[in-house]
Amino acid sequence: MSIKLNGIISGFDTETLISSLMELERVRVYRQEERQEQLEAKKKAWQQVRSGLTSIQTKLDQLRFPTLFRSRKVELSDSSVATVSVDSGAAQSSYTLRVVKLAQSHMITTGDEALYKAADEQLGWAGTFEIGTKDGALATITVEATDTLSSLAAKINEANSGVMANVVMVREGKFRLILSASQSGADNEIRLANEVAQPPDGEPYEKGFLDGILGLTGSSRLELSAAQDAEIEVNGHSYTSSTNNFENVLPGIKITAKKLTGSDPVSMIVSADTDKVVQAVKDWVNAVNSLQDQLKNLTAYDAEKKTSSVLTGDSLVRSIQYYLREPFSAKVLGMPESMNMLSQIGVSTGAYGSANYGKIVVDEAKLREAIQRDPEGVARLFGLNEEAVTNEAGIVTEPAHKGIAVQMNEYLKSLLDSDGAIGTREESLSKQIDRIKETIERIELQLEQREKVLQQQFTRMEEVLSKLQSQNNYLTAMIKSLSSSDKS
Fold first, then answer.
1. How confident is the model at residue 57 (pLDDT cuts 50, 70, 90)?
2. Residue 9 backbone phi and psi in degrees, to 5
3. pLDDT one-digit tens code per residue, 294-323
């Protein structure tokens, strides 16, 4: 093992000297790290561009299809009466709505206080009975003499007969059984039938089970809620439903009744949902403007400081900027002259000299007027998608007709696909970064070996100097010794 002699003989600070030499050689690493930082900044910038393009593509999804432009909204003069949903394309009209009845589930119990039970009281009856609803199959319930209200309720619930059982406390220490139909409507009335007693000793019971013990039939039965269909009137015509939902009364319109209206109906107006379309267009335009601002920052050049941004001069960025502007001044083939440009519906580039110059602006009043006047025309301006027509020889006889949203979506898809232009850039940058990392690791290994060599060289130098110094000291001592002998 070599011993480090840190300038003991030479007088040099060898550790500092080696450190300085290594720092000079480490410049190679610093250059690679600087290059890596630049590439990572570019990669991050392209990730931001991808995010912006994806946002635009998401906003385009609605605009590519006619469903958006056929959106409907409904207004009720009293929104507490019902909830109404409207499908795209439903007829635009006005209606009167009256809620006559709300759907109810059948609920029964006993009204005889003498039949209330203690929580652990055994019913003292064995046998079977059937339970279900008017419109469903009956299930057989087997009762044992040791059953209580709670165990009987559990058996009924396990039978899945369309009837649910609950034990409810009426007063301290006293309970009764309540039966409820699982579904509302007149056809779901609770049915209790075919009671068959099976006393263990063969002697008949004094009282019937459903009537005399539970009080669910006969004069003791109390109806808490009748089995009832919901009923509404639309424009004076009556409709019923086993639930409060009405889906087939008007095409594309679903009504859920919530509250009785009494004798006075409420008005229900179905109209085009222009707000939804306008908002979708504005969201798309805002996404385009946002990305254009981002691209401008990523390619900016500071003439005063003479510094460039991370993507300054990049040809792909210039191409994206151009294609994001181009649709707002282009004509859509296959559309009439009065409806073949976005500017004709209020979507255009900001005027020169205005605060919005260089941005896309939306004239809401003009856009609303176009949507109300010709919603299908606006839908085609965005979503027209007719492929090119070719003859038998494969020659195009009619070019493709594609709306603005379809065109832009196809362009964005070509950029964002895994083998698209942006994906290729990101992959190339990742590979370059990986190569630089490998280069840095290789240089670091070389520097480590170089530092060991320098340490060994300086150590050997110190060892040689130490020997020379020893020899010098020996010779000096000999000379002094000879000189002393001569004098004597």
1. very high
2. -90, -50
3. 999 999 988 888 888 999 999 999 999 999
Please tell me the distance from the alpha carbon of residue 374 to that of residue 69, in angstroms, as a whole number: 10
Question: Would you say 426 and 415 are in contact if contact means Cβ atoms under 8 Å apart?
Answer: no
Q: How is residue 238 written in tokens?
A: 């009556």
Q: Classify residue 105 by burial, with Cβ atoms within 10 Å: 0-12, 13-18, 19+.
A: buried
**Is the Cβ–Cβ distance between 72 and 271 less than 8 Å?**
yes
- Reported as a single tens digit per residue, the pLDDT across 193-207 is 999 999 988 889 999
Structure confidence at residue 58 as a pLDDT band (50, 70, 90): very high
Interatomic CA distance for residues 138 and 129, integer angstroms: 9
DSSP-derived 3-state class of residue 326 = helix
Strand order in the sheet with 245-250: 82-86, 253-257, 245-250
Beta-sheet pairing, 72-76 with 174-181 = unpaired
The residue assigned the tokens 């004509």 is 331
Per DSSP, helices labelled H in 213-263 are none
118, 174 contact by CB (below 8 A): yes
Beta 82-86 vs 253-257: how paired, if at all?
Answer: antiparallel
- How many other CB atoms sit within 10 Å of the CB of residue 351? 10
How many CB atoms are located within 10 Å of the residue 288 CB? 23
Whether residue 347 contacts residue 360, with contact meaning beta carbons closer than 8 Å, is answered with: yes
Q: How many other β-carbons are positioned within 10 Å of the β-carbon of residue 81? A: 22
Q: Are 130 and 143 in contact (CB under 8 A)?
A: no
User: Could you identify the residue written with the tokens 């004709």?
Assistant: 344
Q: Are 270 and 90 in contact (CB under 8 A)?
A: yes
Are residues 290 and 284 in contact, defined by beta-carbon separation less than 8 angstroms?
Answer: no
- List the one residue out of 150, 225, 222 whose CA is nearest residue 188: 225
Half-sphere exposure (CA, 13 Å, Cβ side) for 329? 11
The answer to whether the CB of 234 falls within 8 A of the CB of 95 is yes
Instruction: Say how many Å lie between the first and final Cα of the chain, rounded.
Output: 49
Tell me the C-alpha to C-alpha distance, in Å, between residue 206 and each of 198, 199, 203, 209, 216: 13, 11, 9, 10, 17
Q: Which two tokens stand for residue 195?
A: 């009671």
Model pTM?
Answer: 0.73
pLDDT, residue 3, reads: 46
CA distances from 442 to 18, 48, 436 (A): 20, 32, 10
Amino acid at 64: R
Closest alpha carbon to 148 in 213, 215, 224: 213
Instruction: Report which DSSP code applies to 343.
Output: G
Q: Is the pLDDT of residue 6 over 70?
A: no
Angle between helices 27-63 and 14-25 (to 10 degrees): 40
- Which tokens sit at 333? 């083939």
Q: Which of 359, 341, 363, 342 is nearest to 350 (CA)?
A: 359
Three-class SS state of 45: helix
